[in-house]
Design a protein that fits this description.
Radius of gyration: 32 Å
Distance between the termini: 93 Å
Number of strands: 5
Helix content: 40-55%
Structural class: alpha+beta
Largest sheet: 5 strands, mixed
CATH architecture of the largest domain: 3-Layer(aba) Sandwich
Number of helices: 4
């Protein structure tokens, strides 16, 4: 009789152990499913962020080289943006400051090659708000590679005339005014991103 009870006790323990093991397996499967769903969700969010997140507010312009010319009137390959952000230029630099006159690309592009940023504007009817903001920004970057001057034709890649453009080597940030505070923030981000970068061939 005691032998039968012992056998039943062993069977009961085995049954409980089997049930407990099955409950653990079910719990592990649920945990694995939750982790898998979470991982797929995180991956989907990451992919959506990469493809749907807005890019920077400036545009990238293909380089047209670093060729040096002897004089402004020398024939050379055409520029591919307005204002130009790369291409043939004189071998000398101009000072990092504000200029009242238009600076030809053959002159200022060398400054871009040396890590400069040019703040340009075209205000036929005057635009004190724009030039005032540009002067304030220029003053904040005193001692850095930043210059400012008027430019006769500022046109974005879609052919739309614009009031102003910040130009670095291979990058242009176009704008029309600073009524939106984010525009000045974007301008400063542009300068911070590209000022001081050595753009010489092979650098």
């Amino acid at each position: 009789m005691a032998q039968v009870r012992g056998k039943r006790l062993i069977q009961e323990r085995e049954r409980k152990a089997t049930e407990q093991a099955e409950r653990k397996r079910a719990s592990d499967r649920r945990s694995a499913m939750i982790i898998a769903v979470a991982a797929v969700g995180a991956l989907a969010i990451g992919i959506a962020w990469v493809f749907l997140a807005p890019g920077p507010p400036w545009v990238a312009i293909d380089s047209v080289g670093n060729d040096h010319i002897v004089a402004i009137g020398d024939p050379h390959r055409p520029y591919n943006s307005s204002p130009p952000s790369s291409g043939p230029h004189l071998g000398s630099l101009i000072q990092w400051q504000e200029y009242d006159e238009v600076i030809p690309p053959e002159v200022y592009v060398h400054n871009l090659e040396d890590g400069g940023v040019a703040l340009t504007y075209n205000c036929a009817d005057g635009c004190d708000d724009v030039t005032g903001t540009l002067r304030a920004v220029l003053a904040d970057y005193e001692g850095d590679n930043v210059l400012m001057f008027p430019y006769q034709e500022i046109t974005d890649p879609d052919g739309v005339p614009r009031v102003g453009a910040a130009v670095a080597w291979g990058r242009v940030y176009y704008f029309d005014d600073f009524t939106d505070p984010g525009t000045e923030e974007d301008l400063r981000d542009f300068i911070n991103a590209f000022e001081g970068i050595n753009n010489h061939a092979g650098a």
